[in-house]
Amino acid sequence: MENKVLERKHKEDKPVLAICYDFDKTLSPDDMQAQGYIQSVGCEVEDFWKESNMLAENNDMDQNLAWMFTMKHKADGQILLTKENLNDYGSKVKLFPGVEDWFSRIRDYGLQHGVIVEHYIISSGLKEMIEGTKVAKEFEKIYACSFYYDESNVAVWPAQVINYTNKTQFLFRIEKGVLDVNDQGVNEYFSPEEIRVPFRNMIYIGDSDTDVPCMKLVNKNGGHSIAVFDAETKDKTKAYKMMREERIKYFVPADYTENSELDFLVKAIIERTSKNEVLEEIYYKCKKENTEADKKSDDSDREKTNLVIALENSGSFASTHEIIRGLSMYSMWSDEMLEQLFSVAVNNSQVRYILGDSDIKAFYTKLLSLVKLSSPNAEKVQEILKMN
Fold it and tell me: What is the number of other CB atoms lying within 10 angstroms of the CB of residue 283?
């Protein structure tokens, strides 16, 4: 059997903005299982979740593992729990207004502003059902719970379980472009310049406490967390709680239509990303140049430079004497540093006024002896020392 080729993405020549979505009650108004599957196995929605939650509570069981087990258990003798059937249930899942054309519209807006927009699902729902929805192909990756299937394509065991705490690992995968769930490269070190999607370029859209770890992580690292609430019920209770606890930056109705509050907000973030990344590019360019310059100097050169800069900014006689003591420890000076020191003596009144003090005079007299080609500043310092 051939090894699977791991899926990785690399840094683009344009900034990438990753929009990560929960699914149930974020893109869809209800739990996906409650929109066809639960009814097909002869259960009431409330009874299904009550039984599932009780199973988890009585057995110290993960709640997502509990509902996956309950799904399989309820299907026995009723329906075949195949990937195809689950896809079919997913095709019947209702979506919030505007969701169907949202993804392509936002991608196009990003391109107009020089930003690559990518969409990701990070959900505790069922991957096979999400893959059956009308919008499944819009996502770069769907991270959700999933089953392992036997040779007849019937679900037999959980293959992937995603709960509210381990959701955060997928943000790091997106950050580094290490998208495959089995790729251990997510633990490798990436320098800031190599990061494909820095957290500042992430948007996390969710609806409840189960999204809090992701929202908090994105928020803490300069990204944008958005809580959505049902536009029909207008119940903002959860959004207020998350805002109060500083889990989110914004809350808006779950309306994905053009010119909605969410549409305006995400477009504003795209515009901000476009401008901010220009500054980041300049920053990394300066940082790279600084790193290269440091490679050409040693610690003593950098310490001398720091002392010269301190002398240039000295604002008191006491600090000037202290800095000169530090400078006097060095005997080797480049022509550029010599000229800078003479310039400081001429132009900084604090230094010029006490050039005649014994320690300052001794230091500058020594510097003058090192001069190969005199300059106006060196000559001026020499004149001042002669008068003292």
Answer: 12
